[in-house]
Amino acid sequence: MLDVAALCNKGDLRRRGDHWVWHGDPTDVALLSLANKLGVERDKLLERYPQVGAIPFEPENQYAATFHHCDGHYLAIVKGAPERILRMCEQTLQRAGIAEQLATAEAMAGAGYRALAFAEGQIGDGAARSETDLLWNHDSFTRLTFAGFVGMIDPLRPGAREAVHRCHDAGIEVMMITGDHPVTALAIARELDLATSSSQVVTGTELSQMDEGQFSESVERARVFARVAPKQKLDIVNAARRQGHFVAVTGDGVNDAPALRAANIGVAMGKSGTDVAREAAELVISDDNFATIVNGIEEGRVAYDNVRKVIYLLVSTGAAEVLLIGTAFAVGAWLPLPLLAVQLLWLNLVTNGIQGIAMAFEPAEAGILRRPPRRPTEPIFNRLMVERTIVAAVVMAAVGVGAFWWMIAHEWSEPAARNALLLLMVLFENIHIGNCRSETQSALRLSTLKSPFLLAGALGALAIHVAAMHLPLFQGMLQIEPVSATVWLSMFGLSLTVFVAIEIHKWTWSWRLPQTHHQ
After folding, report:
1. How far apart are CA 186 and CA 160, in angstroms?
2. Residue ranges of domains in the chain
3. Counting C-beta atoms within 10 Å of the first and last residue's C-beta, which end of the chain has fewer, N or C?
4. How far is C-alpha 173 from the chain's CA centre?
């Protein structure tokens, strides 16, 4: 059996100094390692049995073969799926022997091993056959001698089971598509908590006998697909996409390339993946670890959340300024211009700019992977964003206009009123960034210490404005000056109105749409 495993092999395993260097398919390399450990060397075998041809492995055939000269005959060496290889030995094993060996293979598969079968035999003399007849006349493959099974296992990586659980918590369905025996696939799926019974396993043979409706139903129901051909993997991806799923596919081989390209996101393996698979994919995972993909999903959600938070902060405060100035123009002679152009620039580029940059570093919210996925077609400005932007902008603008009108009505000078209003808008921004930290949770539940960048940004923006109020250069440029403690307390009290308004909106949103995060 080890001779067969070493001869029907496209891998390469050699010792260089203190290290082993390998190339080729990991299965072939593992077989060479087994043979080497037990004293069987492939190079010496090839000297004795020169290779004259080969049939490469194809999932449709479920086996690979090599052909060698042996004492004037051709020697066929084959390896592959047990059920396929045992059919090639039906004249030597007979029906009872085949059934016994299939039971052995089933037992190995049930223990989580991928059983690989091996056989060999003389199939003709070299003078009587051409090489073409030899390679493709499969009728000769019925009287080979069964050599044995090798059980192989690719143990689950640490954290793989937990990563699948995290996907389920995040509303992401995980499927296993493999060329392994269905019993092997089910054993591994049970370890991953992907499937619990054979009814959740569909084989490639079963898929080939289904019509389009049955195929789609199987894709929706099953979580494990075994003995699947590359074309069927592509069909599964296309069926899932037709059902409205956003599909990510992982793969490493040449045969995976069509499915990788057809998926919404193709994810190739960086270590074991072929160049073809990497070229077909949108992402390449350098450590070949499924848990890395789940970590990437979490980081992607954090990044998307932070983009929304920054946009909400900038647009809502900008809209408040537009409403503030627009209202002053609308009332005409009743109010002078609330803020000068340079003061608006100061708000947007300095104080608000610092806070916006800090908001981009907001850490992940608790339970971010327990949310349902958002729809791919959902815009940034969805219903929640629009409602909350309007509420924040209207409150800040209304309070700002009211405060400015009151100051002018009580005979404050225009520069003094603008100075106090500019301070109010800066305080609004500092209070409002607390509102922006979460779309669903109250700002009172979020510790500022967990977001040091945001805390530093808020304090820094306020400190810069306070410094500008006391420095002659900025006093002249911005037409501002220090204010009394009474004005400070009054403006701070008014700035809390935006906090109260958004807290009320969060509460009403939670009971209006309790199961919805973004929609």
Report:
1. 16
2. 2-152, 160-292, 299-512
3. C
4. 12
Percent with pLDDT over 90 in the chain: 58
Please name which of 338, 311, 501 lies closest in space to residue 424, comparing C-alpha atoms.
338
Could you confirm whether domain 2-152 is CATH 3.40.1110.10? yes
Which of 64, 65, 74 is CA-nearest to residue 124?
A: 74
Higher pLDDT, residue 196 or 419: 419
Coil, strand or helix: which one is 13? strand
pLDDT above 70: residue 133:
no
Q: What's 36-93 look like in SS3?
A: HHCCCCHHHHHHHCCEEEEEEEECCCCEEEEEEEECCEEEEEEEECHHHHHHCCHHHH
Q: Which CATH number fits domain 299-512: 3.40.50.2300, 1.20.1440.60, 1.10.10.10, 1.20.1110.10?
A: 1.20.1110.10
Strands of 248-251's sheet in order across:
248-251, 265-269, 283-285
The first and second tokens of residue 445, run together, are 């539940």
Residue linked to tokens 């793989």:
160
Rg (Cα) of the chain, in Å, rounded?
A: 35
E strands in 178-231: 201-203, 224-226
| pLDDT higher than 80, residue 56 | yes
Contact 289, 305 (CB under 8 A): no
Integer Cα distance of 137 and 292 in angstroms: 46
The tokens 């627009």 sit on which residue? 326
Cα dist from 205 to 88, 110, 182, 258, whole Å: 19, 20, 11, 20
How far out from the chain centre does Cα 421 lie? 47
Task: Specify whether the CB–CB gap between 275 and 292 falls below 8 A.
Answer: no
Helix/strand/coil percent split, the chain, to 5: 60, 15, 25
Torsions phi, psi for 216 (to 5 deg): -65, -40
For the record, the structure tokens of 310 come out as 């920054």
- What are the distances in angstroms from CA 398 to CA 234, 321, 390, 425, 468? 57, 10, 12, 12, 26
Is 359 in contact with 306 (CB distance < 8 Å)?
yes
Q: Topology of domain 160-292, per CATH? A: Rossmann fold (3.40.50)
Query: 276-327, pLDDT tens digit by residue?
Result: 999 999 999 998 888 999 999 999 999 999 999 999 999 999 999 999 999 9
